[in-house]
Amino acid sequence: MDTLFAALADPTRRGVVERLTRGEAPIKELAAPHDMALPSFMKHIDRLEDAGLVTTRKVGRQRIVALTPDAFAPAETWLERQKRAWEERLDRLEDLAVRLEADSTDDA
Amino acid sequence: MDTLFAALADPTRRGVVERLTRGEAPIKELAAPHDMALPSFMKHIDRLEDAGLVTTRKVGRQRIVALTPDAFAPAETWLERQKRAWEERLDRLEDLAVRLEADSTDDA
DNA sequence: CATTTGGTTAGCCATATAGCTTAGTATATC
DNA sequence: GATATACTAAGCTATATGGCTAACCAAATG
């Protein structure tokens, strides 16, 4: 989870992910839009792979990078759970407020 | 976006967020379950605040921390967009495969 | 077989991160 | 007014991160 969110906390890496939703590609092609030396770029790919967001395979002298199926699932699940917990609490608070309001008008 | 994902890339901070979905709390109380010196813990709160995940206000000598409404929205939106792009591409590929298959059986 | 091309390895540098301690400051509480 | 409480500020350390260059390896290509 740490590595997943950390992998997404960098614009270069998010850019690579966005590119990969349109299909796999070799490293050279992925690197092209990012003004940086190849070894530096490679580290980002490594980090994406460590996070499980991406898989790579060697074809000839090229390394092809592809998005992992359900790559985002753990992150989405966690976020969804938090949002739900938060909204349920707001609902309970609202419910409580409504009931208190009803009580006060009963008194009148 | 960078700071948002980075803020979530740490178990202490995710723990704080999870706790806050059940309601706001002062720093001391939030810090209690995390075995670490207060100043160290404070830095995590600062990082959550910088990411816009959390707001704080001073009440007497306490600092109350609360989850920001729609705190996760940007992260969720980005993830959702990627997932959608990815799935649309898979659909197109499947569609293409089905059509190719149909063509080949037509030939037979 | 010489030369590109696409990665890869190794190692360096600057900054950021996550932790610490020690020493304040401001608000309660006795 | 003295003391305790809840931060807050300053400054230190170790490791991680994001970038670089230089040199190397292996698979094309001429």
UniProtKB/TrEMBL annotation, chains A, B:
Q: Which GO terms describe its molecular function?
A: DNA-binding transcription factor activity
Q: Domain HTH arsR-type, which positions?
A: 1-87
State the PROSITE patterns in the record: HTH_ARSR_2
InterPro entries in the record, alphabetically? ArsR-like_HTH, HTH_ArsR_DNA-bd_dom, WH-like_DNA-bd_sf, WH_DNA-bd_sf
Note whether Chaperone occurs among the keywords. no
Write the record's keywords in alphabetical order, separated by commas: Coiled coil
Record protein name field: Metalloregulator ArsR/SmtB family transcription factor
Superkingdom per UniProt: Bacteria
What CDD domains is this protein classified in?
Answer: HTH_ARSR (cd00090)
Parts forming coiled coils: 76-103
